[in-house]
């Protein structure tokens, strides 16, 4: 999917671009839990072409999907916006500890109220503890 997203934003043919967007929207409808993690950041990209493409794919998926998919997309977009806010937030001077209940209220509320069943993938890498053989 990342390869398709890379190609769709840079493609010069409007016909090919439209077909790729349609294919990606179908992926979001069929596999929302996996596909939205690639599509949502695209819709929030700083590059206008990439952002527009991501928004088009999301809107097409919203039209093809049901109300639950629309709610999931809305929650996912809000989650992305909240995570960007967290990344950009500067802790108050002298603060030794930040808590979600005090400093990240919007993110905490979103996770509690709307994203309890939202699967957030966490990359895990395996590290070998044995030394290589000589």
Automatic annotation (TrEMBL):
Short name of one Pfam family for this protein?
A: HEAT_ATR
Q: What is this protein called?
A: Multidrug-resistance type transporter aminotriazole resistance
Q: Which residues form the Serine/threonine-protein kinase ATR-like HEAT repeats domain?
A: 2-66
Quote the InterPro entries the UniProt record gives.
HEAT_ATR
């Amino acid at each position: 999917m990342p390869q398709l997203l890379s190609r769709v934003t840079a493609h010069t043919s409007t016909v090919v671009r439209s077909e790729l967007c349609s294919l990606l929207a179908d992926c979001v409808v069929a596999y929302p839990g996996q596909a939205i993690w690639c599509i949502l950041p695209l819709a929030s990209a700083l590059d206008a072409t990439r952002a527009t493409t991501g928004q088009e794919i999301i809107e097409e998926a919203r039209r093809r999907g049901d109300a639950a998919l629309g709610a999931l997309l809305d929650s996912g977009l809000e989650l992305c916006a909240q995570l960007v806010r967290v990344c950009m937030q500067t802790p108050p001077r002298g603060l030794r500890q930040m808590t979600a209940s005090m400093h990240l209220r919007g993110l905490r509320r979103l996770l509690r109220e709307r994203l309890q069943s939202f699967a957030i993938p966490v990359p895990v890498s395996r590290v070998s503890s044995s030394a290589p053989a000589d």
